[in-house]
């Protein structure tokens, strides 16, 4: 007597069968250099959006699939093209919103890449290429999971499904809030899956339950009205670099921990995580010591950071015996869960103004703030997601915090306060997102696709 497989079992098998096609389509997306930063070709972002639109239309399940933009309120400029698809729920079933982004980081120094950044290349069980992990793999996890659901249930299932594939996440999501407001009805959902985070390791899935916020701004330090000869006036007048070095040194204590009054920490337990693991995953050499205090994960998940990420100053090639009158630098800070990002920025600005040496003139500009996020894990969808992850990976999931920021999640919470938000992802600690040789662990991708298909099937069978 033949026993028919259950519906979840059938979806799982269909999801496994959907992986090769999903990876092939991922390769096609990776070949499109969809960089949304100023100075790059907007047409490539539009081409990427059109490719995603075609993938969603081919599913045959949506009431509408559109490429849309919103105006950035602060500048009046048009935001980057996003893809919005919607399908109404039926028979009392919930609606799920699936989020990912199709834009990518710039490649940086291309000489550091072992293969061309926009030519997908498989080596040692990983797919290399810019966007292969962050976040075109998230796009294809959604598409592949939906393909599996359609394979088993057909196109006439009851679950409501909305997709929002953003086109400017890496560039700061400047039009995100406006896009949400203008398209709230098409995006409204009971459950939101944000596929833009990571996992505990390549074989252990994770739900991200906390995210640090972020503060980014440009600081200009001025000490002179004009450049002067360093031999003639050096030793009597401060140049901008001297003032900047002394000023920046006040931001951290001798352990490298942030020393800015008013920046808070979150008190929460963290899992075991060794220094050896940190060295392996971060690329920390044996003779370089970690910074900060407390458990390693508390430093990454629950404490603030301040980092200088860019500086305008003469290069080594252009160095001269000159006292530089002013310079500008970019400061990026991570804000602990529980603190408002604007409050954190005010604390950093106050600290810098209070510690400006030699009466240096400070100017603050291009301020960008994103709030941290804490997940409510009490909802039924969270339990369903954990069950789906455990089945898909064969390992129970871990609740993790993330040191990085996804500021728009706070916008989602504000716009859809009743939704259960699940932050998941396809990355493992060796994905090197934003860095040269970004890659996707192929087994992790397979498990993530299967898990999401199982979650969709579970939600289609339930009433939240």
Low-confidence stretches: none
Compute the number of structural domains.
2
CA radius of gyration is 24 Å
Number of strands: 18
The side-by-side strand order for the widest beta sheet comes to: 1-2-6-3-7-17
Which fold name fills CATH's third level, the topology of the largest domain?
Aminopeptidase
CATH superfamily membership of the largest domain, which one?
Answer: Zn peptidases
Biggest beta sheet summary:
6 strands, mixed
Strand-residue proportion? 15-25%
Helical content band: 25-40%
CATH class of the largest domain: Alpha Beta
Overall residue-averaged pLDDT value: 95
Helical run tally:
13
What does this structure look like?
There is one protein chain. The chain is of the alpha+beta class. The chain has 2 domains: about 5-210 and about 370-460, Aminopeptidase (3-Layer(aba) Sandwich); about 215-265 and about 305-370, Alpha-Beta Plaits. Helix content is about 35%, strand content about 25%. It contains 13 helices and 18 strands. It has helices spanning about 5-30, 40-60, 135-155, 175-180, 185, 230-235, 240-250, 275-280, 295-300, 340-355, 380-395, 410-415, 440-460; strands at about 65-70, 80-85, 95-100, 120-125, 125-130, 160-165, 190-200, 205-210, 215-220, 230, 305-310, 320-325, 325-335, 360-370, 375, 400, 420-425, 440. It has a 6-stranded mixed β-sheet, with helices on both faces. Strands 11-13-9-14 form a 4-stranded antiparallel β-sheet. A 3-stranded antiparallel β-sheet has the order 4-5-18. A hairpin with a 2-residue loop joins strand 4 and strand 5 (about 125-130). Helix 1 runs antiparallel to helix 3 and helix 1 (about 5-30) packs across helix 13 (about 440-460). It is elongated and about 90 Å long. The mean pLDDT is about 95.
